[in-house]
User: Which sequence fits this backbone?
């Protein structure tokens, strides 16, 4: 019974977090230009991802740090961010804070067209993954999507799909060539 209550709390928190993320990312102008059939497709995709996330939460092991390429979408639907790779930092400090970084490209939500390479950063306490907070999305000085090639300390080493190399400082949120 205690496990069922915990699963219910987890599911509710996931739904609230998903809704909050969608509301933060939605732009009134973009929504006005999206056709009803496209909006219906977005809603179905979001519902499917939420259902999959709910099923995974009760079975998910603690997050492992490292870099993953070609991940399945992160907390985004297809017309928010085109994901190429992600980085999860080791837990840090007494509160076990972890950083999750998604790299790829920013997308115009009205047209689903890539606008710029980007890094999207989140932080959460490893003991309460449902308290994930957005740090921000940081556009790169390229229109090509970015991939993480390595990470060292607070620096990510990135390569664009067009072959350009960058570093990204997770503290200052600045790119360097």
Assistant:
């Amino acid at each position: 019974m205690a496990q069922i209550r915990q699963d219910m709390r987890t599911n509710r928190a996931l739904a609230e977090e998903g809704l909050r993320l969608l509301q933060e990312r939605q732009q009134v102008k973009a929504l006005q230009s999206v056709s009803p059939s496209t909006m219906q497709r977005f809603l179905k995709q979001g519902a499917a991802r939420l259902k999959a996330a709910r099923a995974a939460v009760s079975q998910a092991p603690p997050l492992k740090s490292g870099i993953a390429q070609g991940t399945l979408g992160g907390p985004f639907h297809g017309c928010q961010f085109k994901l190429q790779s992600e980085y999860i930092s080791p837990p840090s400090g007494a509160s076990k804070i972890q950083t999750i970084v998604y790299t790829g490209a920013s997308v115009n939500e009205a047209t689903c067209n890539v606008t710029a390479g980007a890094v999207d950063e989140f932080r959460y306490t490893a003991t309460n993954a449902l308290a994930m907070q957005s740090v921000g999305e940081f556009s790169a000085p390229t229109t090509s999507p970015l991939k993480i090639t390595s990470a060292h300390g607070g620096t990510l080493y990135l390569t664009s799909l067009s072959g350009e190399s960058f570093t990204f400082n997770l503290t200052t949120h600045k790119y360097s060539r």
Summary: The radius of gyration is 17 Å. The chain has one domain: 2-176. The chain has a mean pLDDT of 80.
